[in-house]
Write a structure and sequence with these properties.
Layout (H helix, E strand, L loop, with lengths): L4 H11 L5 E3 L5 E3 L3 E6 L4 H10 L4 E7 L3 H15 L5 E3 L2 H5 L6 E4 L6 H10 L3 E4 L7 H14 L3 E3 L7 H11 L6 E7 L21 H5 L25 H18 L8 E8 L12 E7 L5 E5 L5 E6 L3 E5 L2 E4 L22 H11 L7 H20 L3 E4 L4 E2 L3 H7 L17 H4 L4
Helix pairs in contact: 5-6, 6-11, 7-9, 9-11, 11-12
């Protein structure tokens, strides 16, 4: 019989063998030079993350989980083919997966509305977490999640992989070392949405999908294929449109530049927020523009009407960075041998490698939970500002809206409009129960 984790620990201690320690689902330290990972949500980004994890020899995908049984079986077969065995376990209910023995970490790539309950449940099991952005669907969830991750001492990595690329790290160090002079303005350019949703219609959920579980904590809408795989993000019950889908990438880099990973703006206002004319299937804004003011005086513009990426303007220069590369006002900044200055930021050149190394070392990963929560906070506030048609005053230290009771209720997820409706409580015990 395979020895239990406790037996393995005792044997190893007696032998005085050096061990790599990670936290496991049992809540105890687990000896392992190989990290046992479970993948929850395994279609698009989930599939990419699963394969990225399997490319590292010290990581083993031990289980997969999805409410779509077709994808579940497909991914289980792919994992087994990779390892040339039949060991990968498959689950449709993440609660059952989290009861597995021997797990060290989970990867979460579900629709946004499921991120918080699954991540909080995993953290309370002592599991380290790699989660796609935005890490939560609402601000209240994000604040709760950050607290639980800190309390449980688990390693967190957000899937904001731009932090692990030189092309983004170099502009961050240029700004942080003051080479632009005093930063005055910045633009965060995000993609446009689609103003033309599919036609409504009467559809039945596929037989291989547990649709009620897929809706989970969010209100249930009639099933529509144009609001399901890949397209759920265009309705505020389940996602946040292109604004929230991408703000966790580019605004995350801007916050890194401005040294705002633990802070945020003081003012947020909306200039444009255009939703589809017919909102029966999709209702997320396809064209949007908002402005933020930060404690250091920097004014930022977040919009789909600017060049995608991050553009920063200072008194001594400017720069722009995106996934296509960067442009900068000084030619010497392009030289890899150029030293921007003494302030160096966290260096990672492989996002999954960084996560796995931190699972072993217990050091913070390059994209921690609070940084991700803070990067998406302006998006949460823009949605509320757009809904109310009001400028919001924000206190970043306490994370509270000042002198606006209606907006504060929406922020706390106590309103009665999307996407701030109270959850279906029978699906979110992990989120609501302080003692879970």
């Amino acid at each position: 019989m395979r020895p239990s984790r406790r037996q393995f620990l005792a044997t190893a201690a007696a032998a005085a063998a050096p061990l790599i320690l990670t936290r496991g689902a049992s809540g105890e330290s687990a000896p392992s030079s190989r990290i046992n990972l479970a993948c929850i949500g395994i279609r698009s980004m989930g599939n990419g993350n699963m394969n990225a994890a399997m490319s590292h020899s010290d990581c083993r995908v031990a289980a997969v989980c999805d409410v779509d049984e077709e994808y579940l079986e497909r991914r289980r077969n792919e994992v087994n083919a990779r390892y040339e065995n039949e060991d990968c376990k498959a689950f449709t209910d993440y609660h059952e997966l989290l009861e597995m023995d021997g797990l060290d970490a989970v990867m979460i790539a579900t629709p946004d509305h499921w991120h918080a309950p699954i991540a909080i449940a995993a953290a309370r099991k002592g599991l380290d977490i790699y989660c796609e952005k935005p890490i939560t669907h609402t601000h209240a969830e994000g604040k709760k999640l950050v607290s639980v991750v800190e309390e449980e001492g688990v390693v967190w990595q957000t899937g904001s992989q731009q932090r692990s690329e030189y092309r983004f790290r170099r502009p961050v160090e240029i700004v942080r070392n003051g080479l632009l002079g005093d930063v005055q303005e910045a633009e965060v350019g995000l993609p446009s949405g689609n103003p033309f949703p599919p036609d409504p219609g009467d559809f039945d959920p596929p037989g291989h999908v547990d649709y009620d579980q897929w809706c989970g904590p969010s209100p249930v809408l009639p099933y529509h294929p144009g609001r399901f795989h890949g397209s759920w993000r265009w309705h505020y019950h389940y996602g946040g449109g292109q604004l929230q889908d991408w703000i966790g990438h580019h605004n995350d880099i801007l916050h890194w530049m401005l040294d705002m990973d633990g802070s945020g703006p003081t003012e947020v206002e909306i200039a444009q927020f255009d939703q589809p004319q017919d909102q029966e299937v999709w209702n997320a804004a396809w064209r949007y523009e908002g402005f933020c003011r930060y404690p250091n005086g920097v004014r930022t513009r977040i919009t789909n009407r600017a060049r995608q990426g991050v553009t920063v303007y200072g008194t001594e220069g400017w720069l722009h960075v995106s996934r296509s590369g960067y442009a900068m006002s000084r030619p010497e900044w392009y030289d890899r041998d150029f030293d921007p200055g003494p302030e160096k930021v966290y260096e990672s050149n492989n996002h999954w490698r960084n996560f796995l190394d931190c699972v072993k070392s217990r050091e913070p990963a390059i994209a921690p939970a609070e940084a991700a929560h803070r990067a998406t906070t302006p998006g949460h506030l823009m949605l509320i500002a757009a809904h109310l048609g009001q400028r919001l005053v924000w206190e970043p230290d306490t994370e509270q809206i000042i002198d606006n009771e209606e907006a504060s209720k929406l922020l706390a997820q106590q309103g009665d409009v999307m996407p701030w409706m109270p959850w279906r409580t029978d699906w979110c015990e992990d989120y609501l129960n302080e003692d879970a």
